[in-house]
């Protein structure tokens, strides 16, 4: 076979094999479920945007579910080209976008909703894709830690409970503006509770407001506006409290 014939055959094989792979990869991207985040607007006197800070990853397909808890608000992220003129109480507006550049993107309310309207602010933090992947890998408990927890028959706060808080709760319940003052970002802040009242009663999961809220037996079920926690996660939280809610 001549040299040019061989090159021609190779090119044909690349097209025949590469095109389906590219199409398949494109379909996987288009069909991949977006990462969904809910933001609820309250007047500033009642807490402002909840949460007022979300963290996403560069290149991630993001859905923002936006609503109001009280009066009509607006929502805009000028640097991302997002502008929702009106958010009505109890009605959701969905905005989707894919951030291309890392950085911090402020958002704000665009309707004068109360005397403290100027405080209606928040931010979307876009992490670099590589850094986010490294952080996620570092956050996964090691097999040795998981085996030790299973073997001992105890529930570990760091290995079992804190990952639930990180994935399901701290989108709202973290920092100084956390709803009801409940910050689940660390063991110490979780044990301080909400507005000075404990949400965890060691040894008594049924009497712990944290358990009551995730089960929906004390007012609105948490996470607010999200899917209920899987039963296995609720059981882990209950088991940890039953064992005295240790910092283990």
Kindly list the characteristics that best describe this protein.
single chain; 248 residues; 9 strands; Immunoglobulin-like; four-stranded mixed β-sheet; 3 domains; alpha/beta; three-stranded mixed β-sheet
What would you say about this model in short?
With 248 residues, this protein is α/β, with parallel strands linked by helices.
Mind sketching the topology for me?
Blueprint: H1 3-31, E1 35-41, E2 49-50, E3 53-57, E4 62-68, E5 73-77, E6 82-87, E7 93-97, E8 103-108, E9 121-127, H2 129-139, H3 143-152, H4 157-168, H5 187-192, H6 209-215, H7 231-242
Parallel strand pairs: 1-4, 3-9
Antiparallel strand pairs: 1-2, 4-7, 5-6, 8-9
Biggest β-sheet strands, sense, barrel = 4 strands, mixed
Number of strands: 9
Compute the gyration radius: what is it?
23 Å
Number of helices: 7
What is the overall shape?
globular
Q: Structural class, please?
A: alpha/beta
Report the order of strands and helices: HEEEEEEEEEHHHHHH
Overall pLDDT confidence:
79
Beginning-to-end CA distance, first to last residue: 70 Å
Helix content: 25-40%
Widest beta sheet: strand line-up = 2-1-4-7
Structure description:
The chain has 248 residues and is of the alpha/beta class. The chain has three domains: 1-32; 35-130, Immunoglobulin-like, CATH 2.60.40.420; 140-242, no CATH class. It contains seven helices and nine strands; from the N terminus they run H-E-E-E-E-E-E-E-E-E-H-H-H-H-H-H. Helix 4 crosses helix 7.
């Amino acid at each position: 076979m001549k040299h040019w014939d061989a090159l021609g055959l190779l090119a044909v094989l690349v097209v025949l094999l590469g095109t389906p792979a590219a199409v398949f990869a494109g379909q996987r991207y288009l069909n991949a479920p977006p990462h969904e985040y809910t933001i609820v607007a309250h007047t500033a006197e009642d807490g402002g945007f909840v949460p007022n800070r979300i963290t996403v990853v560069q290149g991630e397909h993001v859905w923002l579910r936006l609503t109001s808890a009280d009066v009509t608000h607006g929502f805009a992220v000028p640097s991302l080209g997002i502008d929702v003129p009106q958010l009505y109480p109890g009605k959701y507006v969905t905005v989707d976008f894919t951030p291309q550049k890392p950085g911090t993107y402020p958002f704000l309310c665009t309707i004068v909703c109360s005397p403290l309207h100027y405080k209606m602010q928040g931010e979307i933090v876009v992490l670099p894709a590589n850094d986010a992947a490294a952080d996620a890998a570092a956050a996964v408990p090691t097999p040795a830690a998981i085996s030790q927890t299973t073997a001992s028959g105890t529930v570990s706060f760091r290995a079992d409970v804190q990952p639930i808080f990180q994935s399901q709760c701290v989108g709202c319940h973290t920092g100084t503006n956390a709803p009801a003052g409940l910050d689940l970002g660390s063991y110490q802040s979780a044990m301080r509770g909400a507005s000075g009242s404990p949400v965890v009663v060691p040894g008594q999961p049924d009497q712990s407001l944290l358990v009551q809220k995730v089960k929906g037996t004390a007012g609105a079920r948490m996470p607010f506006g999200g899917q209920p926690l899987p039963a296995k996660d609720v059981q882990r939280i209950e088991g940890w409290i039953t064992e005295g809610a240790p910092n283990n």
